[in-house]
Amino acid sequence: MSETLTFTDIEANICAVARLIEEDKLYFVQMAGPPLMAILMAKRMRTPNIGYVVEEGAVAPSPTFPLWPMMLGASRSHYRAVCWTGMNTVDFHASLGYMDYGVLAAIQVDRYGNLNSTITGDSYEKPERRFGGPGGGNEIASQCWRVIVMTKLEKRKFVEKLDFMSSPGYLDGSPGARERAGMPAGTGPYLVVTERALFGFDEKSHMLKLQAVAPWMSVEEVLARMDFKPLIADPVEELAPPTENELAILRAEIDPGGYTLNRGEWITVERDGSGAVRRVSRTGGKGADA
User: Fold this and answer.
1) pLDDT at 32 (0 to 100)
2) Residue 125, Cα to own-chain centre: how many angstroms?
3) Which domain holds residue 63?
4) How far apart, in whole angstroms, are the C-alpha atoms of residue 81 and residue 58?
């Protein structure tokens, strides 16, 4: 007997990152969107004792669940914070080494984990599209010990050359590149997580390395969605899809209004009696990956 599960690519990304969150660590996260949702979901389901700092200055909030609709990014999401300072203060804390992990979203990523969240197009003055920019993302990417990046697996997002560098990864990948640019030694990007694949970084070359793939995708299909070829781990692990319980909590308690979750691409997968997972077509949605 088979079971069917339907979710958005954004939900899959949030669930994958939430599983990576470690107890008793301090996370530096952007103020709203999937990165903050992943932190809150982990705090609700698996790691209640994690602390997190939001880029605008709230330190270790402890919100109650379920969250109110449209709460993320509002002052209510900082309920019971230890203190609420400002962006410069928490950036200073990061520079002192207090932040174990940073969690960011990006619109473009290159092979060395450099990030673009500012524009697309050849001209900064006249871009094809202008986005909100990094906000505190530059400081998060520059100063946290490890940085987790969330994005979608698309060729326009995994690019050989960024249209604009908003936040640094390993720069040109050469030894000591970050340190020469003034960043603390031992810091840098750690993982890039998408709805279809998970990437790490090679310790010597600092190049992106494919580590896990969703069960309805092949390695070749993942590579076809990238503008460059990453290193490939041996073996490549499986990136598990969301569970029914994870989706229920995410939809009812983290984003009850669906203002973020419902904006993504819908994915339907079927798990057969042996545990194998494949993607199936969905009426009114997009079909199987080609």
Assistant:
1) 78
2) 28
3) 3-280
4) 6
Token code pair at residue 83? 């203190």
Q: What is the pLDDT of residues 54-93, one digit of tens each?
A: 988 889 988 888 887 656 566 666 788 898 888 889 998 9
The dihedral over CA atoms of 99, 105, 107, 112, expressed in degrees to the nearest 10, equals 40
In angstroms, the Cα distances linking 180 to 13, 122, 184 are 33, 27, 9
CATH assignment at residue 152:
3.40.1080.10
Determine the pLDDT at residue 84. Answer: 86
Nearest C-alpha neighbor of 187 from the set 105, 264, 255, 95: 95
Which one from 11, 22, 55, 238 is the annotated catalytic residue?
Answer: 55
| CB-count burial class (<10 Å; 0-12, 13-18, 19+) for 167 | buried
203 is catalytic: no
Give pLDDT tens digits for 123-179. Answer: 999 999 998 888 888 999 999 999 999 999 999 999 999 999 999 999 999 999 999
196, 153 Cβ separation under 8 angstroms = yes
Q: Please tell me the total count of domains within the chain.
A: 1
Any residues with CB less than 8 A from the CB of 68 and at least 6 apart, and which?
Answer: 76, 256
